[in-house]
Design a protein that fits this description.
Length: 602
Amino acid sequence: MEILNDILDPINTILWHNWVLYIVLGVGVLFTIWSGVCQFRALTHGVAVTRGKYDDPKDPGAINHFQALSAALSATVGLGNIAGVGVAVALGGPGAVFWMWMVGIFGMAIKTTEVTLSMLYRNTDDPENPHGGPMYVAAKAFKDKGMAGVGKVVGSIFVVTLLISTITGGNMFQSWSVGEITENYFHVPSIVSGIILAVLVAAVIIGGIKRIGAVAGRIVPIMCAIYLLAAAVVLIMNIAEIPAVLKMIVVEAFSPAEAQGAFLGGTAGYALLWGMKRALFSSESGQGSSPIAHSAAKTNEPVREGVVAGLEPFIDTIVVCTLTALVILTTGAFNRGPEANFQNPTAVRIVEVDLVGAGTDNKDPDGVQDKNKSGTPLWTLETPDIPPRNQDARDTSGPWSGGEGLFIIVHGDDDSNTGQNLHRMGGKIKLGEDDVAIVTWNSFASTIKPTLAEEDGGIYVEYPGPSLTGHAFDRAIPGLGKYLVTIAAWLFALSTMISWSYYGEQGMVFLFGDKSVFPYKVFYCLMIIVAAAGFIQTDKELDSLTALGTGVMLWANIPIMLIFGSIAMKAYHTYIGKLKRGEFHAHAAPSITDVMGGKSKE
């Protein structure tokens, strides 16, 4: 994995350059103005359409508007809302939430535009099984301009990026996160979770988009309701903290955030980077993925489904991500204090790795390098046994159980991202005889010898990915995070993986035809197990994979939107004009049960 990271890091540096973020945000502003603030139509007309008031069973398509929205939401409302938000706040600070909001608001216009385009150019040769997405937009729209070869190439490039994102963010990220939080809380080996997930996903995706839509139509409302209700309870308990937190979100979006507790600080640019990166990963605005699900919707009005799609970023980012962020911020999970302290901090020694017992070729007898590839010295910790958790930590998380990741904050080289010289030196606990906690410390690169940043020798627990959100809930109600977030993680991951499997499947059909679908599904399920089997070890490795998937899709899809966006906007304004003139007649909405079950009003 280290070799892969060395390859991915420079690629992601280009994919996620600040200018890329500005361009994506600018595209959202462009289509917001061009459409005349289509966000308003999504929140009004889009809700009516989703409710089934315009459903017609005679229209081409496989699933109704509600199921199409649920299938797309099942891919977006997922572990990005639990794990991704936790990573954004932990690294970017409260200001990251502000930039998540911006992506959510302007992402509504991006989503409306990209789905409208895909609906205009979808393939309905088989009305019961339509195909659509940016690859079909590129192929058909360029062909209309007499450039069929260009269209096929551009569409194929998009599919390649789609498949990369499918395997990384839509598959491996989900499996790793579920395995990590299940093992963290219940000590179930991660690979066991991966095998169970693979079996469940296989059982659903064999049935195609109709089964996916039916499952998503039932899972998504239930999982969202449970999660949002729990978040609301925690926020009510911490309601006095909300005004100060909201102010902090806005202020720190434009100014450096100070280091506090486990939070190492961050520049305004770092908050923007993490807020936008995680929000784009969560909402998928501009990626071109959810148009593939929406293209299966039953309708003869392309713009109608585009308006429905505008609800996605609102639900995903403005509602779910915001509640998750507020839970993390109001409970103090992001800037939490140490959970134990060394009784004698002077016994903690920071030593250069080659002083531990250097061998040849810059490695000690265990094969640990004493310098990284740039020649920077590596350092590690020598510490006495880890003392028990303090009382508050025991009340929240119980005693040490083994397997916890720990870190100590040290001064080292300056970090341009945080604006500080603070760093984490991490390790992992294992329990020895009589349950004595022993830590194996990792190495840390620094040109200067690190020194302890806290005189009392504070020992912090690492809560990677979804674990930080679970810890935030536990801080409010001990045990709530353990069960709620674990259950939510399983449901969110399952729903996301079944939807993304369909996205990848449609890409395979575009490139290689229907015969490629079965081997693709087998490979997809195998990668679930691979991700949970220890292929990914840290948040950094996880971010490298998901950043690659999201980034390459943005680079492929945004140009398609800009080239053909005028076609979508012309169709949008024509449709809204008809809506204003009363040319569309709504009927009484079907029952909620019928809508969720895919039954349209005759």
